[in-house]
Amino acid sequence: MDVTPAVTPAATPAPDPKGAPVDLPAPQRLGVLSRLAPEPMKVVLNWGRRYSLWVFNFGLACCAIEFIAASMARHDFIRLGVIPFAPGPRQADLMIVSGTVTDKMAPAVKRLYEQMPEPKYVISFGACSNCGGPYWDSYAVTKGVDQIIPVDVYVPGCPPRPEALLQGILKLQEKIARESLADRYGNSAGRPSVAYLQSDLVSPPPAPAPGVGGQ
User: Fold this and answer.
1) What is the CATH number of the domain that holds 136?
2) Residue 128 is assigned to a ligand binding site
3) Transmembrane ranges (predicted)?
4) Per the annotation, does 158 bind a ligand?
5) What is the pTM of this model?
6) Residue numbers of the domain that contains 108
7) Would residue 156 count as lying in a domain?
């Protein structure tokens, strides 16, 4: 005589006659799913970005002369896949900030950075752009361009030689070659938010009271 207890199948819940919505699993973030892309595809995309950097030169002081020297025939950074003098920020992949960033110029730097399409990169070229340089204690100087926009590579010097800029470009290309856009843009914790980038940098002066200043 078989005494094995019969296995009763799990009861299936009856469908709701009122047509209540069925709970679905939470959707995955795009950044997580993009990691499933074939690795050769990522290599090809990073290779294309690495060797087709259109540069928007934001020259503010003497370091801009060294940038021009790096783009001339002697150093010729075009051989590295860097195309200088993009028509404007909307056609650029890389912004090179060279020179002293003043508080008056900071909103223009920030606005032009916002106009660049993603993915975009920034090289801070020279001591003034890195931290204010010799003018760091001036009331009118921004203590580094990274106070207003994210920076990928810092090139030290006052002013740096053109060879230093070439090394900074190589460092940026190494970073692009091993980066994942899902990690770069899927998690915005390490980069300023859109609301922060679009916020005002300097508060406008208060309006004069009626009757002041000969009114």
Assistant:
1) 3.40.50.12280
2) yes
3) 51-70
4) yes
5) 0.65
6) 53-179
7) yes
